[in-house]
Specification:
Elements lengths: L2 H10 L2 E7 L5 E11 L2 E7 L3 H8 L2 E8 L5 E14 L2 H12 L5 H14 L2 E15 L4 H7 L7
Antiparallel strand pairs: 1-2, 1-4, 2-3, 3-6, 4-5, 5-6
Length: 154
């Protein structure tokens, strides 16, 4: 994908897979609600989550943003994570609601964020890309034909 296509795709994204490194070196992958803003992926999550513990210990993370249809398209982001604690209700609401609004109305997002703030401390994780790799099988004529059922696989 072109740089402009990647930017547009990431802005439309609702769910990503956040991959971090566990203490034992294995990979922890978790689906997350996210928002792409100012060149970074933003995730709001509870402080006690494994992804937060991992990102505090090792800032190297990978985020996969993709869609699955007969045509597969996505972006793999290799980057550095920065953990920011959302200590006040006002800060939590101002940072969490825009992420949640991608999945529900503003009113629902505000109620959801307020409820979460009552039961857990929130964290915002910024992922700053160091390298991005994109793929779009719609740009491959053979794969498009296969997805339409116009060819037999070899």
């Amino acid at each position: 994908m072109t740089k402009e296509e990647i930017e547009s795709f990431l802005k439309e994204t609702e769910i990503a897979r956040f991959c971090s490194i566990n203490k034992d070196g294995s990979i922890h992958a978790a689906p997350v609600w996210c928002k792409y803003e100012t060149g970074r992926i933003i995730v709001v999550t509870p402080e006690a989550s494994r992804k937060v513990r991992n990102a505090k210990r090792n800032k190297n993370v990978t985020v996969l943003v993709d869609i699955e249809q007969p045509i597969v398209k996505g972006v793999v982001i290799y980057g550095k994570a920065e953990v920011q604690y959302l200590l006040t209700r006002e800060k939590y609401m101002s940072d969490a609601v825009p992420v949640f609004e991608k999945h529900m109305s503003k009113d629902e997002a505000e109620r959801y964020a307020a409820g979460l703030f009552k039961v857990t401390r929130g964290v915002k994780i910024f992922v700053t890309p160091e390298r991005m790799v994109s793929f779009d099988t719609n740009k491959d004529e053979t794969l498009r034909a296969l997805a339409r059922g116009n060819m037999e696989p070899i």
